[in-house]
Amino acid sequence: MEHDLSPATLTELRRPRPYPAVSVLTPTHRRAPDHAQDQVRLRNAVAEAKKQLEADPAVTRERRAAVARELDRALSEIDLTHAEDGLAIFAAPGEHQVWSLARSVPERVVLSDTFLTRSLVSAQTAERPFWVLCLAADRVALWNGGAGRVVEERTAGFPLTRRVENFDPERQMRIGDPPSAFRDEGTRRFLREADAAMGKVLRAQPRPLYVTGEPPAIALLDEVGSVAGRAVHVPRGGLAHAGAETVWQAVRPVIEAEVRKSAEAVRRALESARGRRAFAAGIDELWHSAREGRVRLLAVEENHRVTVVDAGDHLVPVESGTPGAREDIVDEIVEQCLETGADVRFVPDGTLRDADGIAGVLRY
Predict the structure, then answer these.
(1) What are the tens digits of pLDDT across the range 281-336?
(2) Cα-Cα-Cα-Cα dihedral sign, residues 194, 195, 198, 204
(3) pLDDT for position 102
(4) What mean pLDDT do residues 346-351 have?
(5) If we measure between CA atoms, which residue out of 103, 80, 25 comes closest to residue 346?
(6) Which terminus of the chain faces fewer neighbouring Cβ atoms within 10 Å, N or C?
(7) Residue 69 has pLDDT above 50, yes or no
(8) Does residue 174 have a pLDDT over 60?
């Protein structure tokens, strides 16, 4: 199952396809007892997709069979043992993808000429993805982080490795200078290479960067390149050779502190916007502002969900499951704001209590 939504991947998913491109979304659960129903729910959702294919006169028999095969292949690949909060299946003739999401999605089947990506975009943003660069004199590892986990990334040449020569014991005895792996020219070249590789990754997928290592290692990376100057420093060695759980536990307190700082910065920005009459709150007002491209900063509580019906000039909240309702209106607003260049921040539940869970700072 896929997890990492890069800009290039999103562009590919949004590429128009010959009709029908089928999107199947279903919520999943991490724990019992709800977890036990996920397999049944998933099979029912795929069955509903096949039913819609059968009933659509615009779908030829050959295309219907081709998409049904891809749906069956996708279903056979899904292992719900490590399910997160949502699942998306995309299927078209000759292709399929399965995405695991760390944010719940409404149960939905859509036949169109593009895949329905807004839930992926919203989930990716809510995860607050980040990079962790772990430094050592003989290895530099890159970790892809988000939603309470890190996974080692193997891209742009990472992990970088080199052989470190043993130091000269006679030199140490002669001048009393303990050897430092971060003072020789070979290590300088190695970390300069790591800086260039990390810069390439950040240009392709910009996100916060955390750099770990012994203080001399971080200082040298800062001296020979540019990425350390934009990163949060975690002065702890030994992580370049460590496993995922060790790396995550080392950076977790720092990341959680950054999340708190971000939430406080959002709160201050919203408070300032009230005084300038540049403040918007609630689903209806944010939906209109997002469509007009007026939102500069959008703040959404992590688990905020609203179901609405479109009454023409405004949105009306209704119960989930209401015929004709839009179950994913929050994700629509998030995607629209991102496409118009807004800064979208997810904040802890309860942060926006007085704004019904969603608020924004307007450009004008």
Answers:
(1) 999 999 999 999 999 999 999 889 899 999 888 899 998 878 888 888 999 999 99
(2) negative
(3) 85
(4) 90
(5) 103
(6) C
(7) yes
(8) no
> How many Cβ atoms are within 10 Å of 238's Cβ, its own excluded?
13
Distance CA 51, CA 58 (A): 14
Average pLDDT along the chain: 91
DSSP string for 159-227 = SEE-PPPPP-HHHHHHH-----TTSSHHHHHHHHHHHHHHHHHHHHS---EEEES-HHHHHHHHHH-SG
Q: What CA–CA distance (Å, rounded) separates 174 from 152?
A: 42
Count CB atoms within 10 A of the CB of residue 296.
19
Q: Of all helices (H) and strands (E), which one includes residue 142?
A: strand 139-146
| Cβ-based burial of 162 (10 A; exposed 0-12, middle 13-18, buried ≥19) | middle
Give CA–CA dist 73/98, Å, rounded: 10
Structure tokens at 347: 């904040």
The phi, psi pair for 92, rounded to 5°, reads -150, 165
- Of 48, 44, 120, nearest in space to 84 by CA: 120
Q: How far separated are the first and last CA of the chain, in Å rounded?
A: 41
Strands 295-301 and 343-347: parallel
Q: Which two tokens stand for residue 119?
A: 């839930």
Q: Give the phi and the psi of residue 111 in degrees, each rounded to 5.
A: -105, 120
